[in-house]
Amino acid sequence: MKKWVGVTAAIAMAAGIALPAAPGEALAKEESHHEFSIKGFTDYAELTKKLQQVEKTSKGLVSVDVAGQSNQGRDIYTVRVGSGDKVVLIQSEIHGNEKTGTDAILNLLKTVSGGSPYAQQLREEITFVFMPMMNPDASEGDKRRNTMTWAEVVEDFPQLSGAQPSWNYLDDRVQQNYDYSKNPGFDVNRDFNPDLDYVPQPEDFPGSSSDPGWFITPESQTSRDVYKSLVEEFGKVDVFIDLHHQGVYYVEGTSDEVTLSLSAQFVPDPSSPEGAEYAQYADNYNYDFSRQLNVAAYDALQAKGNSIFNNITLYSQGLDLPGTALGSYALNGSGTVLFEVTGQTQSFGQKKRGQLVKAVETGLLGIVNAVADGSVHDLDPEEYKDIPLTSYRPAE
Ligand SMILES: [Zn+2]
């Protein structure tokens, strides 16, 4: 059966058409290239099964939809629950070697779709939209980038035939233990553009980290389409949260390993001189609200008492990354929160999985509760700067 799929895929690729996986038929999974097991995390097939189950048993409360397809033809799911007029969009695994967010989303989904009065209250206040695995080819490959060649991009956008491949494309080396010379791909989290209607232009390539992206990957296009359709339906996406992992770092001034880092800052403030190039977005951008959301997550984690949940820091500040989902959506008016959990799969595998998933879930619930009851607006945005900074080395 697998061989048949392979042959069909080859024909489809030669014809330049994306081939969706046949129903019930998994694409071959890549060989693991990492030292540590990741079996404890939810993979694509398990996610598909779990979402189908949740939808079925929820009696209409939860709807699971296919929002688009990855470059290799895997479905990209959205999960929607709740009917409130505040919209909270949470995305995970845009980088496929960063996996705790997917499990944290599944836990949160269970909480908010439950039968308790608390869950009911949350659903009355908030419309939740989850994208638990937005880059499934990367998830299945256990790697940062998607699976796509520059030639495929040019097939989709013939106007780019003379352009240089984008700077976030890798086809010539090993990175994070993955050999992209055998299987090239793009860092999808540099492919976003604050202009959600942007059409790729050859003069905008190869670009750089401080330039907007181009929506050349099917994965970023899918996230963008979900975002735009929510804006159309609700007027705005109030909150956007993106779930990631980082290296192993320390809480500044201590020798404590960071559990997770948070951030509200991805582009310079469009009303400031440094953010002048984003001035057209100044009326939408709401840094105070983003900081309040971060404080809500931080407070919920601190409330867990003296534990690893207290080792929370701010991610690097002063960034200018308009090609990230967070940067683009912040400029479009969403309150934004980045989660960066310690250790990607190449360094950790599934080590500490339970605790790290719990940490993400705790932070997410802190945000959700504060948005649902409106208390987020009473938080002091200036408390954001009291969150400790991240240090690359432990204090002596
Ligand atoms: Zn990441």
UniProtKB/TrEMBL annotation:
The keyword Cell wall biogenesis/degradation does not apply. GO terms for biological process: proteolysis. Its cofactor is Zn(2+). GO terms for cellular component: extracellular space. Keywords: Carboxypeptidase, Hydrolase, Protease, Signal. One of its GO terms (molecular function) is metallocarboxypeptidase activity. Residues 40-371 form the Peptidase M14 domain. Residues 1-28 form the signal peptide. Pfam families: Peptidase_M14. Coiled coil: none annotated. Belongs to the peptidase M14 family. PANTHER family: FI01817P-RELATED, PROTEASE FAMILY M14 CARBOXYPEPTIDASE A,B. This is Zinc carboxypeptidase.
